[in-house]
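Exercise 3.2. Students should predict the tertiary structure of the chain below and write it as structure tokens, then compare their answer with the key that follows.

Predict this chain's 3D structure.
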Amino acid sequence: MDQAARGAAALSANKYDEAIQHYTSAIASNPKAVQYYVQRSAAYQRSSKYAEALVDAELAVALAHDRARRELIKDAQLRRGIALYFNERYADAEHIFAIVKKLDEKEKTLQIWTMKVAAKLKDLPEDDERRKVTVEDVPVVELPSGQTPAPAASVKSATPPAPKPVVPTPADKIKHDWYQDNEKVVFTLMAKGVPKDKATVDIDQDSLSISFPIVGSTSDYSLTLDPLYASVDPATSTYQVKSTKIEVVLKKAVPGVKWHTLESDRKIESSSENATTIPSHILQGNTAEAAPAYPTSSKTGAKNWDKLADADLGEEDDMDGDQTSQFFKKLYKGAGSDAQRAMMKSYQESGGTVLSTDWSQVGDKYVKPEPPEGMEAKTYDS
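Answer key:
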């Protein structure tokens, strides 16, 4: 058995120090073997040597790019993202996992790591350094030559480079986007380098206005949406000025009202006594829209996943079971309504082999079973 095989056996048996020794010997014989660095990085990570794990992962990425093999690049970048996560560089980890997704959308562990990173970022203050992306797509490291490279344990983790200054977006290049759920409308203005202390965001019951100077120029940017498609609650609406965008969360005055556009030509009543809670243009016509039907292979007909998700939201879910079960229960309980519908639909239709939180991907199609490698899905007659 060669050193790499011994290292794999030790890693599988949770003998991490032994695995590190074997992979170090294997690297001495073949300093450019990408998988040796990937596996030694995993051994370092599992023995809580996170800085060393990152050094090996970045060497693996650089070597994989040098060999220009897509599968090796994906494996190395995935290991790099995990190492960044354990080094608490969460924005960097999120950036690298996005690269992995472009390389292989079907990578089985990617969704779990993406959710872990999102949960960490959600709890961080807005100005936390761990929210900043400082990592390069391909790390700049010295590639090993034919000589034996030093073990990663003796290499000190390099200080992350200082983040590059954000170049402000020109006024004519600024764009915006929005989406909604039953409770709110989320409006995003894609503008980099907005000065927080000089930006003005005014949220009124029927209008939204944003203005700020463009840093490094004499021009200003101004946007006004008046009137909005429907009224909002200014008291509970919020906004954040970030380095790359301004995000505004407009809480709907009437939950459940579906917006078709951001603005409308509705008339705003001057007297609060005559104002109607729901604008007239929304009340006109048939407002009771039928729930969408989705493809299904069920012999009992299409299922209303909105209804199933709503029903499930009302149930108190305990946290019994092993750690994996607890994780998925917490994940489901903390997810939004669309994500819960996606999880329920994908899990049921695939026979428990697929778990998706993206309703836009699974909502309009049947989710096929994807059994683990070496197994096959079977169907049973009812």
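Discussion points: The chain has three domains: 3-154, 171-269, 291-382. DSSP finds twelve helices and seven strands in the chain.
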